[in-house]
Write a structure and sequence with these properties.
single chain; 46% strand; binds copper (II) ion
Length: 141
C-alpha cells in the first residue's frame, strides 16, 4: 500500500520535472525563427538584428513609433512567399513589396530568405529613410 503511494509520488516528481524541461526548451524552439526588430522613430529606421542565416525562417517585427504614417518596403521579398501580419489580418503571397504602418502601429513580416548579401529597405513616403539587413550565407558562419 505504502509502496504504491511512493510510486505515485515519483510519477508526480517526473511530471513536474518534465514540465520544467519543457518550459526551458521552449525558448530554444523559438530561436529557430530569426527575429529582426525594426523600430521607426524620428523618421529613421532603427534595426536590431543578430546573425541572419539563409534558409531559416526570418521574422521582421516593424514598429512605427512616430506620429506619422511610414512604409517599410523592400525588394528583398521579391519572388519569395511572404506573410505579413498587421492589425490582426494576415496577408500572404509572393511579390509583396512591404507594409504601410500608421502611427504607433506594428506589423510582423515572415519569410524565408534565400539570397545572401545586403538587403535595403526604405520608406516610399519619405525617400531619405533607408535601412538595410545583412544576410549571411551558410558557409560564412
Ligand atoms: Cu516614412
Amino acid at each position: 500500500m505504502s509502496s504504491q503511494k511512493m510510486q505515485w509520488g515519483w510519477v508526480l516528481v517526473l511530471a513536474v520535472t518534465c514540465g520544467f524541461w519543457w518550459e526551458a526548451a521552449e525558448p530554444i524552439f523559438a530561436q529557430s525563427e530569426q527575429v529582426v526588430e525594426v523600430t521607426i522613430k524620428d523618421f529613421k529606421f532603427v534595426t536590431k538584428q543578430g546573425v541572419l542565416r539563409l534558409g531559416f525562417p526570418s521574422v521582421i517585427k516593424v514598429r512605427n513609433e512616430d506620429a506619422e504614417r511610414h512604409d517599410f518596403g523592400s525588394a528583398m521579398f521579391e519572388g519569395l512567399p511572404t506573410q505579413i501580419e498587421k492589425d490582426g489580418v494576415i496577408v500572404y503571397g509572393r511579390g509583396l513589396g512591404g507594409v504601410f504602418l500608421d502611427p504607433k502601429r506594428d506589423a510582423v513580416i515572415r519569410f524565408n530568405m534565400s539570397r545572401p548579401g545586403r538587403h535595403e529597405f526604405r520608406c516610399s513616403i519619405h525617400p531619405n529613410m533607408k535601412g538595410e539587413l545583412l544576410l549571411l550565407s551558410a558557409e560564412a558562419v
